[in-house]
Amino acid sequence: MEYSTSLALLAPEILVSVSGLVLLLVAAWSGDKSARFISIAAAVVLGGAFALVAPSVCTGAAGPDTVAFGGQFRADAFAGLAKLMIFAASGAALVVAPRFFGRAGAMRAEFPILVLFAALGMSIMVSAADLITLYIGLELNSLSAYVLAAILRDDERSAEAGLKYFVLGGLASGILLFGMSLTYGFAGTTNFGGIAIAVADGLSTGQLFGLTFVLAGLAFKISAAPFHMWTPDVYEGAPTPVTMFFASAPKVAAIALLARVSLEAFGSQSLAWQQIVIFAALLSIVIGALGAIGQQNVKRLLAYSSINNVGFILIGLATGTLAGASAMMVYLAIYVVMTIGSFVAVLLMRDGNGDQVESISDLAGLSTTRPALAWCLMALMFSLAGIPPLFGFWGKFVVFQAAVEADLIALAAIGIAASVIGAFYYIKIVKVMFFDEAVNTVTGKSDTPHWVLLAICALLISPLGYLLIGPLGNLADMAAASLAVAF
């Protein structure tokens, strides 16, 4: 394939990278006074990248025509659908961030640039068809994320979150790199297609160890148990727009990458990695559900909710089937909307001084003082719990359906039982808002962009969201079908 064709397939990544470099120069020359302009420009760039990716998703791009640079990169429908979620979530973070940081006088010009480079890394991750490409994309995303977590340099919690994320993230990257080295040593190649050929007749002990370490490293990136320990502290300590970003876009990228590695590189040996994925799924569901019950901080609660939801998404991957991969993408799309909506609601929780309110007890009686916010937050909590007729129910339904069709009935049954347990902490927030005596803590002024974003998310997860079942299901089916794997 000619370089011109390869470069055309990388058009979204080229747009984001060149724009990021140009905006970096603008920030260096103009300083923080240009932060607002850079945020708007970065959002426009992400919108442009979204538009460039959309055709590959709508047409179900697959096959040799989607491969670039000698098999290093794949611009297929699966990667495209993941990129649409990544760019949308990144754009949402850019919309809410200026007002959050502006109140504290801490809006920095480099924030939107870091988001752009993180989105670039995630875009490379989901299109990776080689272990080297995988690692480049993952590290580009991670290095940007470490700085984002600690961007409030005068805030001890933010600095602590950034340090914890950096130390544990470095450990996970080392584990992943070691697994990649083992895989290369025993397979003789770093290309996913070459690895698939090397393991077609069975996994050697070295290849099995390599697979295990690679999955362990990626499990950290999606905060799947037992590699979840960083999540509550980082989510609580990082600025709320950054937490919203961490809980949405990187999750999509890492889960899509995990699916590509499992189904493309090791698809013929699904029995080897299915056990690991099933163990991580069950442990994440249980730890996420039980860990959230005693939380008093809403951001920590949402962190455990994220761990819990990752477990449900991994059930789709554990099936190793086309239907399971499609269900996983459907769940991811719904999860991103619910997560963005939940954190936007948290951003609207401010006291009279404009300071962030994060304690669940401060939400007491919110239905009488801020009814619109309370009702939107209630819908989001019920949707996260998977309670019909809200759209979050459909995400769980398609995942459990795929598990049953793959004869993983016990896994589906445990997941359903655990989802009932997990509903407790979502309902607890609703109970505090609607049945406790009002404390009149959340009295701060609201911002129009936040309300617009919250209204969009609330509408999408409402019963009106079921109108999207057909289009979303078709896109997910085409995305799953584009994976080069024999199901």
From TrEMBL:
It is found in: Cell membrane; Endomembrane system; Membrane. Its EC number is 7.1.1.-. One of its GO terms (biological process) is ATP synthesis coupled electron transport. It is a multi-pass membrane protein. The keyword Transmembrane helix applies. It catalyses: a quinone + NADH + 5 H(+)(in) = a quinol + NAD(+) + 4 H(+)(out). Keywords: Cell membrane, Membrane, NAD, Oxidoreductase, Quinone, Translocase, Transmembrane, Transmembrane helix, Transport, Ubiquinone. Its main location: membrane. Residues 128-422 form the NADH:quinone oxidoreductase/Mrp antiporter transmembrane domain. NDH-1 shuttles electrons from NADH, via FMN and iron-sulfur (Fe-S) centers, to quinones in the respiratory chain. The immediate electron acceptor for the enzyme in this species is believed to be ubiquinone. Couples the redox reaction to proton translocation (for every two electrons transferred, four hydrogen ions are translocated across the cytoplasmic membrane), and thus conserves the redox energy in a proton gradient. Belongs to the complex I subunit 2 family. This is NADH-quinone oxidoreductase subunit N. The lineage of its organism: Bacteria, Pseudomonadati, Pseudomonadota, Alphaproteobacteria, Sphingomonadales. The gene is nuoN.
